[in-house]
């Protein structure tokens, strides 16, 4: 690739913790200007004269794109492109490429980690040990919280793409039976069960589908009530898929055996969230870090480099607009 393209990475610190090799990405541009973070009012100024914008979560609005006439390519350092006005980019002739499939092993193992933690009540036992209850026990062990074996249980899977398939393989390795559910807004398939048929059959439910107008809050109070008493729910997809207040209520009233989420409807949850209340039992919340293994983040760097080379070679990759 001709080494005369100026690129600006707007939010480098959202990807690199100082543990990644960015050499190939730097070599792809002349120069690559890197910013740890970029405030909304700084975006247009920083992109002046740049042919390439690299962003993980910094918003690239129609107004910003209009103010940056030299832009030819936007490289999204993630799969989701909701931070880019795709219609405006298309109108301006700017190609948008994203990264895909980079976090499958990381997110799949995080999903199973959450499911295993719920099944074995790890958080409750850790708190019991910290409170000195094991030290005071009359027996050699403490068994105050019911432990569930995944073997022989049924997992309901909502979303069976690359990530969902990886979760299914791990669940089957633990001896679980996997059933696939029908995603709203998609064509019906004989191997996908409607929610009203799927939910009453499963001991655990995991979500791996995109958030759109069809799937927002598609797991609400009605759907949670259809689950077996004591069922487990894990969401490592998008926070808006589940009605968060309904999930909090289902945990408080004891219908669910537990829930875990790596995602919330607003991130970071600066204005609070129903799932962050301190009185919700059997709930695990992780801070949207399921994707964040070093290996997954290095794959993003590799795909950003590939996408840049492909674009300037005339054969763009992973184009979303």
Automatic annotation (TrEMBL):
Protein name per Swiss-Prot or TrEMBL: Glycerate dehydrogenase
EC number: 1.1.1.29
Residue ranges of domain D-isomer specific 2-hydroxyacid dehydrogenase NAD-binding in the record: 112-290
Pfam families xref list: 2-Hacid_dh, 2-Hacid_dh_C
Entry keyword set: NAD, Oxidoreductase
EC class name: oxidoreductase
Recorded superkingdom: Bacteria
D-isomer specific 2-hydroxyacid dehydrogenase catalytic domain: residues covered: 32-318
GO molecular function: hydroxypyruvate reductase (NADH) activity; NAD binding
Family, per entry: Belongs to the D-isomer specific 2-hydroxyacid dehydrogenase family.
């Amino acid at each position: 690739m001709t080494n005369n393209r100026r690129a600006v990475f707007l939010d480098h610190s959202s990807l690199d913790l100082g543990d990644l090799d960015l050499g190939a990405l730097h070599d792809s541009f002349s120069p690559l200007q890197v910013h740890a973070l970029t405030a909304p009012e700084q975006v247009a100024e920083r992109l002046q004269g740049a042919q390439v914008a690299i962003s993980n979560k910094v918003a690239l609005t129609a107004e910003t794109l209009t103010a940056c006439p030299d832009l030819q390519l936007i490289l999204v350092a993630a799969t989701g492109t909701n931070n880019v006005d795709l219609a405006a980019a298309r109108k301006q002739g700017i190609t948008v490429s994203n990264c895909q499939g980079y976090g499958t092993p990381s997110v799949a193992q995080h999903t199973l980690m959450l499911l295993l933690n719920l099944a074995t009540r790890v958080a409750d036992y850790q708190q019991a040990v910290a409170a000195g209850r094991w030290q005071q026990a009359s027996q050699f062990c403490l068994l105050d919280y019911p432990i569930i074996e995944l073997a022989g249980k049924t997992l309901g899977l909502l979303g069976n793409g690359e990530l969902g398939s990886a979760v299914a393989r791990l669940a089957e390795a633990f001896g679980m039976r996997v059933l696939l559910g029908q995603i709203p807004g998609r064509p019906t398939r004989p191997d996908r069960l409607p929610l009203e048929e799927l939910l009453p059959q499963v001991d655990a439910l995991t979500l791996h589908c995109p958030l759109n107008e069809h799937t927002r809050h598609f797991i609400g109070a009605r759907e949670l009530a259809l689950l077996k008493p004591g069922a487990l729910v894990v969401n490592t997809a998008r926070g808006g898929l589940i009605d968060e207040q309904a999930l909090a209520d289902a945990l408080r009233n004891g219908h669910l055996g537990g829930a875990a989420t790596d995602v919330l409807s607003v991130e970071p949850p600066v204005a609070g969230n129903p799932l962050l209340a301190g009185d919700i039992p059997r709930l695990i919340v992780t801070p949207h870090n399921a994707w964040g293994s070093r290996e997954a983040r290095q794959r993003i760097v590799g795909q950003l480099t590939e996408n840049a080379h492909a674009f300037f070679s005339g054969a763009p990759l992973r184009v979303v607009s």
